[in-house]
Every structure is written in C-alpha cells, then in structure tokens.
Amino acid sequence: MPEQPDPVPPDDLSRGLTVARPDEDQGLPHIGLVGDTYTILVTGQDTAGKYTLIDMHVPPGGGPPPHRHDFEEMFTVLDGEVRVTFRGQTITARAGQTINVPANAPHSFTNATGTPSRLLCMCAPAGQEEFFTLVGQRVATRTQAPPPLSLDEQAAFIATSTRLAPQFKTELLPPPPND
C-alpha cells in the first residue's frame, strides 16, 4: 500500500495577512543601498522565514556589484529593464519578464538605460532584508535616492558589508577584469 502524504497542517492563527502599499505606507522600510532604493514589502517575520519580498527602485547606472548567496533570488521587472550578468553571461531583462537566480550562482545586475527601473525581488528563504537593513541607509520614500557617500563612508560601507555578508550566506565577488 502506498504511503499516505502528511495532511495539510491546521491554519496558524498566530499569523496574519500582510498587505504592503509601498507608495503609501510610510512605515515600510525604504533602504538606500549602492545607489538603489529597496523597500522591504514582506519580511521573513511576516512569512515565518520562508521568503522576503523587496521592491527595488534602480536608477540609471544602479545595481549591485557581483555577488552570490546560498538562497534563491527571483526578479520580476515591473518597469524599465536591467542588464543581468549570470555566471559570466549577460542578458537584458525587460518589463514583464521574470528571472530566477539559483542559489550559489555568481550574478549582478545593472540599469544600463537612462530611466529608472523597478524590480520586484523575492528571496527564499528570508534573511536578505536583514542584511540590507544593516548595511544600507534609511530614506524617506520608495524612489528617494540615498545620499552620496564620502570616501570614508564608502570605505566603512564596504568594510561593514564584507564583515556581515558571511552571516547572511552572501559572498561579495570582485568585479570582472574589464570593469
């Protein structure tokens, strides 16, 4: 006789519905990071650690440097486009497209256009939002650019990011030789 699957567990009444309104809710954290602004829509606390959802405003020239991490990361381009480098190959992801970056794969993305791009990013399991909160700067709105960093502030940001990255299962990679 085949083994019966486990039943669906009962509803966890300690968890509530999460509704995120990034353009209206001033209580959402808007984090300035590498020139981008990341709004944390849904945290690991909201999802029992299963995933986090982040609204990314990426201005022209924005995007993170090469990195990798041991969690899945999915992007849906809502507006604009980004140039995504994945394991050394580059593609362009445009509005309406979704890409999934497998855990541990080296990647980066850049907005190479003259207009802002908007991405919806899901990381599973959660945790990336905590890293962003610790290394980034709070800004007032979803589209507000973080203030430019002085050379000393840039050095401190790099040092803090490098020190904290391993705790969040992230590795910051050197830029490719042609950059």
Automatic annotation (TrEMBL):
Which InterPro entries does the annotation name?
Answer: Cupin_2, QDO-like, RmlC-like_jellyroll, RmlC_Cupin_sf
Q: Where is the Cupin type-2 domain?
A: 56-122
Classify the source by domain of life.
Answer: Bacteria
What Gene3D superfamilies does this protein's entry cite? Jelly Rolls
Q: Which PANTHER family match?
A: PUTATIVE (AFU_ORTHOLOGUE AFUA_8G07350)-RELATED
This chain belongs to the protein called Cupin domain-containing protein
Species: Trebonia kvetii
